[in-house]
Amino acid sequence: MPQPFTGRVAAMVLAAGRGERMRPLTDSTPKPLLPVHGKPLMQWHLEALARSGCTHVVANTAWLGENIEAAFGDTFKSQGARLPMTYSHEGKDFGGALETAGGVARALPMLCDGASNDAGIFWLLAGDVYVPDFEFDGEAVRRFAASGRLAHLWLVPNPEHNPLGDFGLQAVPGDGEPTHLALNLSKDSPLPRYTYSTIGLFSKALFLAPWCDISPGNPLGAKAALAPLLRRAMDQGQVSAQIYTGHWTDVGTPERLRQLHS
């Protein structure tokens, strides 16, 4: 008999960017390894994922990717938890980063490998945001799995560097708590926009036909952004979302990094 779905899924941490705006700090250190309050930025994510019972983590790498693998190895250990780690080396395989959708498509066979409790769902998060209190909640995974949608995003109030935001939000009445759909708003829409936190739950279906035209496993190393896929899915009511009001910082510049330590 099939095992009941536990809400424990894999996660992909995006760690392949060059971090141009963080130079010269990133000339010798990949941005996910820059220290924040005494530990590498990416380690905050890994600790939270380990606490959640995440099954395993895939990290994509490009710039100084060997440093990231050397830092975390094949098993990340945190407070008695063991989190298996694998790496999608875009830099080694293709000479550079494949952007978000291209990177996910490349890593998809590692994320959804047909193991037990594989519901074709995974967490996706950027390795360069600082969100120390975020919980990778199994109940959120179960709700998303039951919805049948393609993605569920956590949105944040717009920071200074993104005052116009990314996506809108609309409540959809239903039984119990209302569902909120993410909206692909037109440029002239008066509705408020929020910023994508770069944390979300995703179905592998979003990265397969007909939504994505990259061959499974991205053997040719096609580069593709995530936003166009999300916007198409939003137009079909296939992306839900919620607001996150906890501490969140996109560590995109040396000044923002300094502010975290002030």
Describe this structure in words.
This protein is of the alpha/beta class and 262 residues long. The protein has a single domain (10-260), classed as Spore Coat Polysaccharide Biosynthesis Protein SpsA, Chain A, CATH 3.90.550.10. Helices cover 24% and strands 26% of the residues. The protein has helices at 41-52, 65-72, 90-94, 99-111, 138-147, 227-235, 254-260, and strands at residues 10-15, 35-36, 39-40, 57-61, 75-78, 81-89, 121-126, 129-130, 151-156, 168-172, 179-183, 195-203, 239-243, 249-250. The strands form 4 sheets. The chain has an 8-stranded mixed sheet with strand order 5-6-4-1-7-12-9-13. It has a two-stranded antiparallel ribbon with strand order 2-3. A two-stranded antiparallel sheet has the order 8-14. The longest helix is centred in the middle third of the chain and has 13 residues, at 99-111. It is globular, with a radius of gyration of 18 Å. The mean pLDDT is 90.
Which descriptors would you attach to this protein?
14 strands, two-stranded antiparallel ribbon, globular, 262 residues, Spore Coat Polysaccharide Biosynthesis Protein SpsA, Chain A, alpha/beta, single chain
What is the average per-residue confidence, as pLDDT, rounded to a whole number?
90
CATH top level assignment:
Alpha Beta
Portion of residues within helices = 10-25%
CATH topology: Spore Coat Polysaccharide Biosynthesis Protein SpsA, Chain A
Oligomer: single chain
Spans of at least 5 consecutive residues whose pLDDT stays below 50 are none
CATH architecture: Alpha-Beta Complex
The general outline is globular
Overall structural class, as computed from helix and strand content, comes to: alpha/beta
Q: Please tell me how large the radius of gyration is.
A: 18 Å
**N-C termini distance:** 55 Å
- Our estimate of the beta-strand percent is 25-35%
What would you give as the CATH superfamily?
Answer: Spore Coat Polysaccharide Biosynthesis Protein SpsA, Chain A
Q: How does the major sheet shape up?
A: 8 strands, mixed
Count every helix, treating DSSP H or I runs of 4 or more residues as helices: 7
The H-and-E topology, N to C, reads as: EEEHEHEEHHEEHEEEEHEEH
Give me the side-by-side strand order of the main sheet: 5-6-4-1-7-12-9-13
